[in-house]
Amino acid sequence: MSSEEIKTRVLNTFMDAFNNGNLSVLDTICAPHMVDHSTAAVPGQANDLEGFKRRVNGHRMGIPDLRFSIMNMIIEGDLMAFQWEMIGTHTGPYMGRPPSGNPVRIVGMNLERLENGQIIEHWSYPDKLAALQQIGAIPA
How far apart are CA 131 and CA 106, in angstroms? Predict the structure, then answer.
């Protein structure tokens, strides 16, 4: 599979999972033994594919109108990196906080390690400080 084909598969899969809540599509791009090393992981959450799906679902529950987009994807060897943005309205419980009704824009970067066209390791680095400020958890 070419780098461009992998980029397209990852882009389409992440967009479908985050924007449409179709978590089963993650099974097509993530290996069953994927390890999630994310800084965004919830305490006590498994660091596997099922834990990753629960985290995606948590974003969707807290920001039901969530729109996720990916920019600047690159692949070098077995590593893929990209910037991302999530926008929406905080109308559900999120990051341990009740709904604020505030608009949110959360940005971050991901690093994915690939094997045979599938993600086997995942790191996500969101701007948690900005997210907490936007939902009213801490002062801006």
Answer: 6
CATH code of 14's domain = 3.10.450.50
Nearest-angstrom CA–CA distance, 125 and 139: 21
CA 40 to centroid of chain Cα atoms: 9
Number of domains comprising the chain:
1
The pTM of the full predicted model, rounded to 2 decimals, is 0.90
pLDDT surpasses 70 at 17: yes
Q: Locate 116 and state its tokens.
A: 């045979």
Nearest CA-CA partner of 122 in 85, 79, 77, 88: 79
38-68 pLDDT, tens digit per residue, is 866 666 778 899 999 999 999 999 999 999 9
Find all residues with CB under 8 Å of 92, minimum gap 6, and list them: 61, 62, 63, 64, 99
